[in-house]
Amino acid sequence: MFKWLSRKSRGPSVEEGPGEGDSGRDPEPAATTGEVASIVRRWDGVIADVRQRFRSLIEKTAAASDAQLAALGTDLGPLSRSWSPTQHQLHQHQEEISDAWNQISDLLSEAEPPEGVMDREGQKRDGATCELELDYERAYRAAMARAAERLKQQWQGATAERRCLSCNTPLPAVVVISQAVNVPCPSCGAMTLLDPGPGLRSFAAAALFIGQRSAQTAWEAMRRAEARINGYRDRREVPLELLRELESSAREYWTTTLTVEAEQVPELAKHMTAKLEGAMKGVEKTLRQFWQWRQQG
Ligand SMILES: [Zn+2]
What we know:
Order of helices and strands: HHHHEEHHHHH
Low-confidence stretches: 1-31
Strand order of the largest sheet: 1-2
Bound molecules: zinc ion
Helix content: 55-70%
């Protein structure tokens, strides 16, 4: 999940400095500003255009995905796979942004922008790359969550009333979603194995999407914090505040995701604390790589 630490940022590290053949030429500051502003507008335009095109594709994919719901069996695999081309396009668009930045940063260098402009514009590349991913994840998780809810509606009646195999006495209502459960008969004591069946088992696996959808805001805050942390060339300069933001949004994300998932699949509740601790241990390990984090009390 925290793959950003190993990802070499090509970030806003383009060297600033006068271009070749500039000696002796002393451009008007106003003219330079105009040129820089025009390059920046062009860059903003590229980002807006890519995001718009990707949003249109996502809308179409989501509509096609929902259209499959009616014919959905118990396997969400085909539905999930129907998002693969859109995910592929996400990576294409991210490369498009990256390539555009390589050109834009060359143009900017030549235009000798004021201090800080290069960094600011370079951060837009990381920001746009992150937002494209969030656009995708938001739509994909919501579509899968809708599919999971449909599975539940369709299959939860299947285990609603069960009777003892031995004496036909109705068995007490038991939540059976992710795994088979042996239920003793209140009358004769014989055990009857209640199996959730493939529909509810599939729902149990997909309930995570419902949890993730509920935690989407925290997820996005976490990913944006990561992207901003990535934007620092020097890890030591990352503000402690930003690291705290990563920690708190990650905690909120995991807490909400796991809580909602366990509401959907009560059998999972007993594992929740351990899962949350495990997830936060990973976050803490990442944060401890920053001296700012280690130094705080
Ligand atoms: Zn019985």
